[in-house]
Structure prediction request, 416 residues.
Amino acid sequence: MRTERGVGSGRSSNQTAILHGTEEIMREQGYAAVTYRSVAARAGVTPGLVQYYFPALENLFIAVLRAGTDRILERLARVSEADQPLRALWDYANSRDGTVMLMEFMALANHRKAVAPVIGEGGERIRQAQLKTLTAVWERYGVPEGDVAPAALLFLMSAIPRMIHLEETFGTVTGHVEAVALVERFLDRVEPRMTGETSQDKTISAHG
Amino acid sequence: MRTERGVGSGRSSNQTAILHGTEEIMREQGYAAVTYRSVAARAGVTPGLVQYYFPALENLFIAVLRAGTDRILERLARVSEADQPLRALWDYANSRDGTVMLMEFMALANHRKAVAPVIGEGGERIRQAQLKTLTAVWERYGVPEGDVAPAALLFLMSAIPRMIHLEETFGTVTGHVEAVALVERFLDRVEPRMTGETSQDKTISAHG
DNA sequence: GTCTATACGGCGATAGAC
DNA sequence: GTCTATCGCCGTATAGAC
Prediction:
């Protein structure tokens, strides 16, 4: 898709090794451990070559971020076909891996200004995709709660697990279980746990 | 309260100038702009003196964080005496300044590990103080909603504005107005806007 | 105690050699 | 395309003046 240099549409094996190594370092040691020297060592190339493909570290971070966003959008396309889309969305929002990397990029954006709009852009694409799914569900279920707009529920189902995880990192826990219980009681009401009557399985089905 | 050196209970004017300057720089340019050299220039002292009081940068960040937490707790003591405590809490949670600094410290904690538990500790103290207020309000209002636990509402009233502000920084906006509307509709129901009948004024009153 | 001056190794970024 | 040399920051450590 995107290249940092005009080498055609593909990426060299060195480029993919650099991107992969960078993501690994971010996940294991945080973005602050990403240096030209550390990435080069991980990818088995020289620091100068990393800098050749990504002239500033921001270019490297942004490339990793974009690749991750693309992966999430692919995953969400599968979620929209799940039997219980609300619970699938809730499971997605509660997944640890995605939240860790998102927080890492949010923290990074604080002092790498060019990263911020890339996060926002990806966030909008993700949320619009989710909203489309949720609005369809709303119609299928017949607007279970006259009060809660799909967009509000979507935001809450995203924000609550994310903020809980963020706070837990620091050791703040008050109100977490109560907030989760609130959402799950809502889910139990509008999308009761499957007992096996409606459609095929708890895996992906095709009826949207 | 806390000193970094054994100079008794007070702080020298240079120490307060350093703390004040550091907070200014964080607010204006972000934590990444906080260096011994930049803080010294802002406070009108030499870099060596900053390092004398705060041997590592982490000590400096933590001192600023603790001072800020103390200020918030003082403010919350006043909130608990407000006529409309729920709305006072909501206003507090929506205040820009506090959120900016909190996010700055959260980002900072990502690569200054000693900062994280200080955030968590302060967060717990703040939330427990808020929970005490909210539980009292719950009894006074007669548990308006059998479903919503005070701790859940407290978490939501804190997490929603904070996550909204965070996302807005990046340019993600979907669902924000809907989520805010949801909370405010709830507030309208359990704590209707004062029309002037109950007590003195919309300023601080004494009846708890 | 309070404060200054200086040195060291590591970093991102740049220019330019091959 | 690939890689090296170099520069100006940084945090930190230390030695010592008042």
